[in-house]
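Run log // design_07
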């Protein structure tokens, strides 16, 4: 790629193969030169290298004892190249190479020789992946393995290693790639002696790219109904504000840390069999929910707090990243139906233990333990406890509660099979105790996550509404149930007031709900109150600072408000949190597109397609705006073909037709979206892609039918 091109591109998702020669430093100078020349010749002769190089889509970076190869088409490129290199090395037993592959962000730079090159987290992380291996190993980051897992030909060659600690205490989840003939099947030395065993990755064990794609159909235009998926951040990343952010942007590190603020880390499983992760996570989440309802106490959301799970990070550093003054940590041990819970409250500023205790109880008494811990923490922080924070409709049946916690564990994962497994467990709990309200909330949650992605809206949202209603009949103080009911009513009945009412009630009960603040932001946006909407999104970011989903919500809020520079900065920040986090239409790409930076938008849209393996409506719109009609029509054809195979948003197809100037076809698809109760059509008024349609009376009519006031919901500058 030319220097001119790299100067223009500030951020791309690349697929990096990093390799170095094992034992290189022990060789004599002439031996080093000879073995390096041999390696260069082998690499240059591989088919993947030659193909990418000929297409101008390969960056080669020498590293002295090895090299980094930066591909841009798909994560299969560096992996195929690694296997080709491994095959050729069989004829050179004296050349021992280890390799690592990672997909992540890179930026264009001009080196000291005024040559185009790249740098960034994508390359740094690929080197760290490689550093965990020995001679012959081809190690993959979990992100790359998750992408490859979508293809049957790769699955039997992916062997999970667990986590490896690299520089600065960062822990990487890695996968060993090998076949019967290629790669190294031995467990790397850095993993020996740990509890991580090499196992084959199977479908359903990792986050599903398809879930991201299809939930994106609803989220790209709405951001939530907008919060259909809370995904736990996979690696330890510091919140670093972009230098291009405007003064108005707020995040967890830019404001003073409140004294009465806390994060609850997931309990460590000390059970002998190490099979109680679901119980540890569930106990911690229930404790978090209880504390979140305490007036005057700011509690960081689950997504951010749980991002440190399994990582050896100092308490002070965790507190700084999360913007809190106090940390709760502890452990849980289970023996049959007996549990032993040890917890401690730590002042992160000075490291002092404010309180600690150990509880040994029957599992059925776990709610009482959570309430005791809640009261002890409130007392230690000198907060006046107002109201009955311990009110909850629990169950006296230990088996029921155990089933519920298992369901909760799977409902917090990503992928259709996980959600359906959670539904089965929640239903089993209800079969034994139909008055257990939290299980009804779990069912509403799982169906909401399935809606628009795996299940048609009219098949899923009625179940969401029914289950949430059942939960609220048993326990009116369930904030999640209020949120789920509000969303279902908005989609099924276009009932905006009910959505607002339920969201406000959820925040009255739990002011620390980042989900609630995102949805309240959506309702403000739909009323044309863009500044108030941004306040809600920014509050959600403070409550869940390490969540890429929440960051993405704020990014889209900036797009809706026309603050494209802020949106670009926030979109880049989302990728800092998770380089592989992408929806069908990247909001960073949307921001570039609406600012008129179409080339940059196309780069990001293409990267999102590589990650999701699905055509992007946003890319089609960008092509149309550039006058590349043939490319836009080809992308539209791909979307239509996908619509025949699985449910996708009819609204997104309509917006592509609008960009192509085919308004009649666009409105025909919008009518289809309306009849399907497509979540995207409910917020079509402020979607930037709808701009070509906004002066048409048919659009005004549609906006009214989905329960919006056109004079407020449609941005004023393009209304007339």
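design_07 sequence
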């Amino acid at each position: 790629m030319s220097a001119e091109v790299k100067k223009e591109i500030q951020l791309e998702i690349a697929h990096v193969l990093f390799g170095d020669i094992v034992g290189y430093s022990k060789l004599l100078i002439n031996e080093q030169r000879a073995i390096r020349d041999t390696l260069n010749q082998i690499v240059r002769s591989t088919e993947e290298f030659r193909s990418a190089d000929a297409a101008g889509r390969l960056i080669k970076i020498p590293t002295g004892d090895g090299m980094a190869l930066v591909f841009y088409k798909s994560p299969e490129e560096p992996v195929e190249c690694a296997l080709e290199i491994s095959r050729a090395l069989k004829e050179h037993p004296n050349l021992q190479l280890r390799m690592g592959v990672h997909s992540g962000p890179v930026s264009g730079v001009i080196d000291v020789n005024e040559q185009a090159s790249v740098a960034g987290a994508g390359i740094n992380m690929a080197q760290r992946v490689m550093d965990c291996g020995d001679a012959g190993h081809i190690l993959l980051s979990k992100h790359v393995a998750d992408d490859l897992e979508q293809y049957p030909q790769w699955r039997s060659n992916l062997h999970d290693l667990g986590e490896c600690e690299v520089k600065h205490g960062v822990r990487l989840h890695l996968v060993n790639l090998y076949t019967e003939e290629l790669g190294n099947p031995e467990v790397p030395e850095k993993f020996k002696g740990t509890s991580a065993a090499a196992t084959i990755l199977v479908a359903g064990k990792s986050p599903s790219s398809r879930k991201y794609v299809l939930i994106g159909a609803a989220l790209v235009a709405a951001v939530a109904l907008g919060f259909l998926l809370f995904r736990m951040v996979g690696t330890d990343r510091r919140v670093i504000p972009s230098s291009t952010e405007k003064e108005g942007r707020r995040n967890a590190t830019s404001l003073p840390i409140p004294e009465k603020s806390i994060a609850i880390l997931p309990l460590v499983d000390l059970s002998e069999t190490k099979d109680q992760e679901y119980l540890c996570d569930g106990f911690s989440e229930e404790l978090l929910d209880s504390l979140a309802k305490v007036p005057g106490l700011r509690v960081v959301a689950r997504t951010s707090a749980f991002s440190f799970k399994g990582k050896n990070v100092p308490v002070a550093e965790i507190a700084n990243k999360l913007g809190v003054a106090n940390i709760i940590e502890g452990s849980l041990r289970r023996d049959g139906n007996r549990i032993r819970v040890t917890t401690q409250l730590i002042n992160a500023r000075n490291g002092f233990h404010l309180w600690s205790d150990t509880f040994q109880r029957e599992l059925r008494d776990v709610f009482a333990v959570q309430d005791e811990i809640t009261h002890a923490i409130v007392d230690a922080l000198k907060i006046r406890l107002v109201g009955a924070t311990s009110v909850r409709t629990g169950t006296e049946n230990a088996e029921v509660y155990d089933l519920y916690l298992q369901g909760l564990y799977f409902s917090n994962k990503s992928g259709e099979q996980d959600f359906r497994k959670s539904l089965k467990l929640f239903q089993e709990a209800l079969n034994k105790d139909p008055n257990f309200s939290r299980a009804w909330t779990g069912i509403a949650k799982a169906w909401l996550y399935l809606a628009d992605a795996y299940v048609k809206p009219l098949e899923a949202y009625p179940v969401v509404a029914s289950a949430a209603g059942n939960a609220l009949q048993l326990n009116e103080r369930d904030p999640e149930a209020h949120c789920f009911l509000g969303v279902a009513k908005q989609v099924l009945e276009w009932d905006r007031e009910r959505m607002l009412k339920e969201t406000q009630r959820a925040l009255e009960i739990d002011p620390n709900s980042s989900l609630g603040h995102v949805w309240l932001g959506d309702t403000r946006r739909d009323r044309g109150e863009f500044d108030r909407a941004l306040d809600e999104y920014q509050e959600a970011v403070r409550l869940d600072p390490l969540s890429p989903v929440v960051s993405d919500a704020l990014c889209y809020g900036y797009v809706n408000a026309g603050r494209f520079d802020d949106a670009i900065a926030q979109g880049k920040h989302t990728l800092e949190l998770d380089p592989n986090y992408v929806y069908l239409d990247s909001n960073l790409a949307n921001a570039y597109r609406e600012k008129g930076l179409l080339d940059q938008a196309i780069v990001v849209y293409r990267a999102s397609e590589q990650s999701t393996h699905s055509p992007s409506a946003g890319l089609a719109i960008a092509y149309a705006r550039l006058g590349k009609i043939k490319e836009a029509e080809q992308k539209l054809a791909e979307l239509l073909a996908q619509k025949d195979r699985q449910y996708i948003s009819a609204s997104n197809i309509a917006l592509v037709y609008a960009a192509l100037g085919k308004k009649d076809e666009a409105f025909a698809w919008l009518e289809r979206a309306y009849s399907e109760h497509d979540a995207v059509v409910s917020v079509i008024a402020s979607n930037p892609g709808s701009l070509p349609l906004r002066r048409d009376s048919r659009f005004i009519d549609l906006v009214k039918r989905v329960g919006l006031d056109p004079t407020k919901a449609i941005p004023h500058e393009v209304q007339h």
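The chain has 30 helices and 15 strands.
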